[in-house]
Amino acid sequence: MALRPERLRLVSGIILFLFLTGHLLNHSLGLISIEAMEAGREVFIFIWRSLPGTILLLGALTLHILLVFVKLLRHRAYRRLPGRDILQIVLGLMIPPLLILHVIGTRITHEVYGLDDSYRYVLYSIWVATPLLGLLQSIGLVVAWLHGCLGLHFWLRLKSWYKKYLPSLYSLALALPLLALSGFINAANEVERMFENAAWRADFFARLNISPDMISWAYGLRDTGYVLMFAALALLAISRIYWLIRFRQRKLNVVSYPDEKLVLTPPGLTLLEASQLGGIPHAHVCGGRGRCSTCRVRVLEGADNLNPPGDKEIAVLRRVGAPEGTRLACQSIPTGDVSIIPLLPASATVVQAFNQPGYLQGQEREIAILFADLRAFTKFSEQKLPYDVVFVINQYFRHMGEAIEANGGHLDKFIGDGVMALFGLNESAETASRRALNAARAMAMELDMMNRNLASDLSSPLKIGIGIHIGQVIVGQMGYGNATSVTAIGDPVNTASRLEALTKEYSSQLIFSDRVATRAAGAFSTLRHESVEIRGRMEPLGIYIVEDARDLQEFSV
């Protein structure tokens, strides 16, 4: 696994988040007593002040700061970043000035002067002696926690399981800082009460052994830190000027979109940034980090004018089974004119970022198509109240849907009182044919059960016609907005629909084609067989006619 900067930044951030989580948990013990906090601190420092823990923590802190700073320097423009990203950046920049004195006054003075930075010392320093520091450091911990939670959220939201556990994780993210602050205040009040005792106070200062030189050194180190932070911010400001001057001196690139939309973009911007610059809606669930693939585009012209895809982009495109000619807009930087088509709607969600079957992108596959339709349901609906009609049709859809899904079928759509299902999206044509025939048999059984259950509500039993055919079709995710679904188009779809319509002429429950019978390799010699003309087909089609689909043999798959 390649150690890319993004991965290193994530790993270092997780280490720092674990450190912060342990720190907050330790604070929470203050709800019990100051002694409980001190006991928890012993465990905490045993982990993080050991040699491995120190190397891990110091390395993660240094690496995270450097990688984030380099990333900020390389940002060509901030105005097009989503608000959530701006918030995370601002929170991250707030952490060092808020917590630098706390770090110096605890870990660094401990290492340099051997100071015992116990909770009693810390709570005295920032609650009794200088309450303003207590407020600033509490704000600093909350800011650091929010920054870390946002970072984890941006990473985990691309995991398929995350949505399920989000409410619980969100509750924990709210509860932990509240418990920590409550424990901090409770223990601080306890120390304040102790400080009122003159004997305790004298013993406390005798053990502490803080010299004026130590205090002066600590504040001097803090001021040096502030100078370095100011210099870093100045460097970031200079980088803005650099990018502005550099790209204004270079020729603009033309990015063409569907419907003859054009965006003139300065060199150095990605295709995603070009869309944002031109006000063209463009999906980017992960915020343009190259993780989710929702910004992917098909390059129609000018592919040579794009930077070559890196390992990160290739891995993401391979994960979603993207066809050749697809690029991630957030990773593609044009050096000339290009023409693109965004492949996902701007409203795309995290679902489109998950690992998905290749056929969702559009594939030609041999699959079995099943059409089913209720007989004389229009007449039934005219004789019943709307509530009764809706109740019966929903029962019908539920029973048919369960029969189809139980046999490995994909419910394509419900059309009025009809059903369309696909078999073999991820299986062989032989298995698809057997599953489709098994589904037809199960549908007939479910309908019989439904008729028995609703006998008192039906003037006559419901009847169904089913048609099944198999052939090469184009399969993919098609539609618009909420009406997008996996479906199939092609002549075999029309043929399956016409076989279903033929069940009326033959007064049968099921008709399937010779091709289905051949693929299923079953024993159908006892079934009625005919050759019929199908509208739209040049040659006659052999069909098998089944009066009652319950009589079909059940195939093992």
Can you characterise this structure?
The chain is α+β, with helices and mostly antiparallel strands. The protein folds into 3 domains: 5-245, no CATH class; 253-353, Ubiquitin-like (UB roll), CATH 3.10.20; 361-551, Nucleotide cyclase, GGDEF domain (Alpha-Beta Plaits). It has 16 helices and 13 strands. A hairpin with a 3-residue loop joins β1 and β2. It is elongated, with a radius of gyration of 34 Å. The two termini are 38 Å apart. The model has no long low-confidence stretch (mean pLDDT 87).
Name the overall outline: elongated
Structural class: alpha+beta
Number of helices: 16
Radius of gyration: 34 Å
Taking the sheet with the most strands, its summary is: 8 strands, mixed
Unreliable spans are none
Beta percentage is: 15-25%
Helix fraction bin: 40-55%
Number of separate strands: 13
What would the average pLDDT be, to the nearest integer?
Answer: 87
The helix/strand order is HHHHHHHHHEEHEHEEEHHEEHEEHEHEE
List keywords for this structure.
557 residues, alpha+beta, Ubiquitin-like (UB roll), Alpha-Beta Plaits, 3 domains, eight-stranded mixed β-sheet, five-stranded mixed β-sheet, 16 helices, 13 strands
